[in-house]
Amino acid sequence: MHNKLSIPDAIKKLFNIEVSKESPFLKNKANSFVRNKLIKTVTENNVQRKNIYLEDDQQLIVLFNALLLNAFYPDPKHVKKIFEDKKYRAECTESIKALFGNQNHLSGQALCSVKVIELINTLDSDKDLYTTQIPNPFTVLPQLALGPNTGLLNNLLLQASSLNPVDSVLISITKNDWLTAKEQTAYLSDDMPGSSEIVKMINNHIDEAKEFDELLDFFYKL
Length: 222
Known about the structure:
Distance between the termini: 55 Å
Helix content: 55-70%
């Protein structure tokens, strides 16, 4: 039988966080996933107020994964797209892998652990994010310390004392500034780990955007 869980109760169950005391912002983030329909809820109308609960136990997994991914990508629509779009999920996985998956990379040492590698491997697989809970590499969710619009990727990169070319490209990608990212790839050397994969990903993304724009222009001219 499904236990009725509100968003605050679910966050308490998943992360042992009392959102009313420790992080109202985290509750707002979770509610943003309800509004964009990533998380499904049911509403019960009572005399004094409406009570909103998770639709079923599966939504606990969705909420867990959404809040973990939100630590990297602060925009809820980008998190939802990771769930729905396999290609975009692969692109985001490459960004996370480039930053955290390489122990020789300065910024990557900030979260180099078994759980990080497990998280990357899960995102890199075909496992369904709606039904498979991804590994949690955080002792404390980064959202508790970061600002409302700052993802972990940007935060760690911007804190670096000097950005190497890969860092600069990754910052542009996390901001969805693909044209700037393409310009910055000119400073990547061929022997940098993952550089060829990053360049290919950027070029493919820009080419697809151009094809879509051309298709729109074609229909507008009809």
